[in-house]
Amino acid sequence: MYTIEELQLLISAEIEKEITLLEQTNPKNLYGPVAYALSMGGKRIRPVMVLLSCNLFSKTVDAAIPAAISTEVFHNFTLLHDDIMDQAEMRRNSPSVYKKYTENIAILSGDAMSIMAYNYLLKSNQEVLEPMIRLFSQTALEVCEGQQFDMDFEDRKDVTIQEYLNMIRLKTAVLLAGCLKLGAIAANAPGQSADLLYAFGLNLGIAFQLQDDLLDVFADQDKFGKKIGGDIVSNKKTFLLLKALEISDDITRETIQNWYSGKDFDEPEKIKAITNIYKKLNIKEITEAGINEFYQSALHICNEINLPPDSKKELLRLADMIMIRDR
Fold first, then answer.
1. pTM for the whole thing?
2. Interatomic CA distance for residues 42 and 29, integer angstroms
3. How far is CA 232 from CA 95, 154, 242, in A?
4. Which domains does the chain have, with CATH numbers?
5. What are the residues whose beta carbons fall under 8 Å from the beta carbon of 138, sequence distance 6 or more?
6. What Cα–Cα distance (Å) separates residue 226 from each residue in 90, 93, 216, 220?
7. What's the rounded Cα separation, in Å, for the pair 81 and 96?
8. Residue 5 exposed, middle or buried by CB count within 10 Å (0-12, 13-18, 19+)
9. 202-252 pLDDT, tens per residue?
10. Who contacts 268 (Cβ-Cβ below 8 Å, separation ≥6)?
11. Taking the CB of the first residue and of the last residue of the chain, which one, N or C, has fewer CB atoms within 10 A?
């Protein structure tokens, strides 16, 4: 079995090859931003999940490398467009693509990345290509649905926690789940095992996004890689906000709503005011409990996968790495 670190090195080397090719490809203002986006690093969690899942059923991971690259390109495409929609100027402690180039260039380069992701996937073995493309297409569409729900929620005052959980399932969790199932399909794994890995990824993905919501407010900004309080400034409906509105008294709820309905405000002042309310209501602890609930569900599903416990050691270690983080 490969370790996570070995798979990170393997996929990083493959992506570096692609970056080198992209930097030499014309037009430079189309492929240069793609190379820049991919070179911004990160832990390569999604492609590692593809390879790790494949390795559960196969001694080699070669068959899953095209899908692994595909998921990383697709994921970075979504980040590139998300940063434009959210007007997020920083990504992984570097200027966002649209800030380094222009919004129009970033939009077009993102479009190219969404198409390139399919081109990489098409390099997979032909006998498993149809189910892989079907899963990838479903996942890609669901991610777009999730992003639209996220945007719609900004103008709604009646968003429920259940609606929010469904939104993050679509926007974040289905891609993690899809990565695990893609790797299993690449290795010709039994259908039940592939489905269990998908369910494992869904629960882990929801826990991951709740953790991201928490970090946006309570993380160390230098480690987090982007501005703390960005969700508060942009009026994002997050689990923290919805839970605060749910359990607040009338006066506190009105204070929150005033901050979120105002157009002109001092950003640091708003972040401080809302954060102080969260602290008063123990929102951090409540969110951590919710994170743990989904995480434990993921671990329970992992136990159901019909594989020797020792073979799942790296998968569980990756889950720990995803959840125990400060960025």
1. 0.93
2. 23
3. 21, 11, 12
4. 4-323 (1.10.600.10)
5. 178
6. 5, 6, 8, 10
7. 10
8. exposed
9. 999 999 999 999 999 998 666 555 578 989 998 889 999 999 999 999 999
10. none
11. N
